[in-house]
Protein backbone atom coordinates (compact mmCIF):
# COMPACT_ATOMS: atom_id res chain seq x y z
CA UNK A 1 0.00 0.00 0.00
CA UNK A 2 1.21 3.48 -0.88
CA UNK A 3 1.72 5.75 2.11
CA UNK A 4 0.43 9.35 2.33
CA UNK A 5 3.09 12.08 2.18
CA UNK A 6 3.47 15.70 3.22
CA UNK A 7 6.43 17.59 1.76
CA UNK A 8 7.27 20.97 3.26
CA UNK A 9 8.27 23.91 1.07
CA UNK A 10 11.68 24.14 2.71
CA UNK A 11 12.39 20.51 1.73
CA UNK A 12 12.02 21.12 -2.02
CA UNK A 13 15.28 21.44 -3.96
CA UNK A 14 15.25 23.62 -7.07
CA UNK A 15 17.62 23.15 -9.99
CA UNK A 16 18.35 25.10 -13.14
CA UNK A 17 16.68 23.78 -16.28
CA UNK A 18 19.56 23.06 -18.66
CA UNK A 19 18.08 24.32 -21.94
CA UNK A 20 16.66 27.52 -20.43
CA UNK A 21 18.66 30.21 -18.65
CA UNK A 22 16.51 31.71 -15.93
CA UNK A 23 14.16 28.76 -15.43
CA UNK A 24 14.28 26.60 -12.31
CA UNK A 25 12.39 23.41 -11.42
CA UNK A 26 11.44 21.86 -8.11
CA UNK A 27 9.93 18.37 -8.02
CA UNK A 28 7.15 18.53 -5.44
CA UNK A 29 5.91 14.94 -5.68
CA UNK A 30 6.72 12.12 -8.12
CA UNK A 31 7.19 8.36 -8.24
CA UNK A 32 10.26 8.59 -5.99
CA UNK A 33 7.88 9.83 -3.27
CA UNK A 34 5.41 7.00 -3.86
CA UNK A 35 3.05 8.74 -6.31
CA UNK A 36 2.13 6.02 -8.84
CA UNK A 37 0.38 8.04 -11.54
CA UNK A 38 1.14 11.78 -11.52
CA UNK A 39 4.08 14.04 -10.77
CA UNK A 40 3.76 17.69 -9.80
CA UNK A 41 6.55 20.16 -10.27
CA UNK A 42 6.94 23.89 -9.62
CA UNK A 43 8.77 26.05 -12.16
CA UNK A 44 9.97 29.63 -11.90
CA UNK A 45 10.84 31.88 -14.85
CA UNK A 46 13.03 34.92 -14.16
CA UNK A 47 12.24 38.34 -15.69
CA UNK A 48 13.80 38.43 -19.17
CA UNK A 49 14.18 34.65 -19.33
CA UNK A 50 12.94 32.47 -22.18
CA UNK A 51 12.66 28.77 -22.93
CA UNK A 52 13.29 27.66 -26.54
CA UNK A 53 10.68 25.92 -28.68
CA UNK A 54 10.49 22.24 -27.73
CA UNK A 55 8.25 19.21 -27.47
CA UNK A 56 7.71 16.65 -24.74
CA UNK A 57 6.63 13.04 -25.13
CA UNK A 58 4.07 13.44 -22.34
CA UNK A 59 1.17 15.82 -21.79
CA UNK A 60 1.44 18.81 -19.43
CA UNK A 61 -1.25 20.41 -17.32
CA UNK A 62 -0.16 23.72 -15.83
CA UNK A 63 -1.52 26.25 -13.35
CA UNK A 64 0.00 29.74 -13.22
CA UNK A 65 0.85 30.78 -9.65
CA UNK A 66 2.49 34.18 -10.13
CA UNK A 67 3.66 36.78 -12.60
CA UNK A 68 2.67 37.29 -16.21
CA UNK A 69 4.51 35.68 -19.11
CA UNK A 70 4.03 34.47 -22.67
CA UNK A 71 3.44 30.83 -23.54
CA UNK A 72 3.74 29.84 -27.18
CA UNK A 73 1.72 26.78 -28.13
CA UNK A 74 1.87 25.63 -31.73
CA UNK A 75 1.70 28.78 -33.86
CA UNK A 76 0.04 31.02 -31.24
CA UNK A 77 1.33 33.07 -28.32
CA UNK A 78 -0.76 33.57 -25.17
CA UNK A 79 -0.11 35.91 -22.25
CA UNK A 80 -0.92 34.09 -19.01
CA UNK A 81 -1.08 35.24 -15.40
CA UNK A 82 -1.91 33.93 -11.92
CA UNK A 83 -5.01 31.72 -11.92
CA UNK A 84 -4.77 30.69 -15.60
CA UNK A 85 -4.60 27.01 -16.56
CA UNK A 86 -3.06 25.34 -19.62
CA UNK A 87 -3.15 21.94 -21.28
CA UNK A 88 -0.25 21.13 -23.62
CA UNK A 89 -0.78 17.80 -25.43
CA UNK A 90 2.16 15.42 -25.87
CA UNK A 91 4.24 16.27 -28.94
CA UNK A 92 3.03 19.90 -29.17
CA UNK A 93 5.68 22.55 -29.83
CA UNK A 94 5.69 25.09 -27.00
CA UNK A 95 7.93 27.74 -25.41
CA UNK A 96 7.97 30.43 -22.71
CA UNK A 97 9.10 34.06 -22.50
CA UNK A 98 8.95 36.40 -19.51
CA UNK A 99 9.00 39.99 -20.79
CA UNK A 100 7.84 41.37 -17.42
CA UNK A 101 9.59 42.67 -14.32
CA UNK A 102 8.30 39.91 -12.01
CA UNK A 103 9.21 36.27 -11.68
CA UNK A 104 6.69 33.90 -13.24
CA UNK A 105 5.80 30.67 -11.46
CA UNK A 106 3.64 27.70 -12.36
CA UNK A 107 2.73 24.21 -11.24
CA UNK A 108 3.04 21.47 -13.86
CA UNK A 109 1.35 18.09 -13.49
CA UNK A 110 2.53 15.24 -15.72
CA UNK A 111 2.21 11.47 -15.86
CA UNK A 112 4.99 9.71 -13.96
CA UNK A 113 7.70 7.96 -15.93
CA UNK A 114 10.14 8.98 -18.60
CA UNK A 115 9.81 12.08 -20.77
CA UNK A 116 12.02 13.10 -23.64
CA UNK A 117 12.39 16.81 -24.35
CA UNK A 118 13.31 17.68 -27.93
CA UNK A 119 14.25 21.16 -29.11
CA UNK A 120 12.21 22.16 -32.14
CA UNK A 121 14.14 22.30 -35.39
CA UNK A 122 15.67 25.66 -36.20
CA UNK A 123 15.54 26.87 -32.58
Domain tally: 1
Mean pLDDT: 91
Supply the number of helical segments.
0
Query: Roughly how much helix do the residues carry, as a percent range?
Result: under 10%
* Count of individual beta strands: 11
Q: Report the end-to-end length measured between terminal Cα atoms.
A: 45 Å
Q: Note the main sheet.
A: 6 strands, antiparallel
Helix-strand category: mainly beta
User: Order of strands in the sheet with the most strands?
Assistant: 1-2-3-10-5-8
In short, what is this structure?
The protein has strands spanning 14-16, 23-29, 38-45, 50-56, 60-66, 68-73, 76-81, 85-88, 94-97, 104-111, 117-119. It has 123 residues and is an all-beta fold.
Commentary on this structure:
The protein is mainly beta. The strands form 2 sheets. The protein has a 6-stranded antiparallel beta sheet with strand order 1-2-3-10-5-8, with no helix packed on it. Strands 7-6-9-4-11 form a 5-stranded antiparallel beta sheet, with no helix packed on it. The chain is built from no helices and 11 strands. 12% of the residues are buried.
Using brief descriptors, characterize the structure shown.
mainly beta; Jelly Rolls; six-stranded antiparallel β-sheet; 51% strand; globular
Amino acid sequence: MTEPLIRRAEDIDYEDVGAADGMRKGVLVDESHGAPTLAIRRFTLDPGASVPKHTNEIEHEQYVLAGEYVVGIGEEEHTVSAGDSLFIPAGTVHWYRNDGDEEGAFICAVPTGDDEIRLAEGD
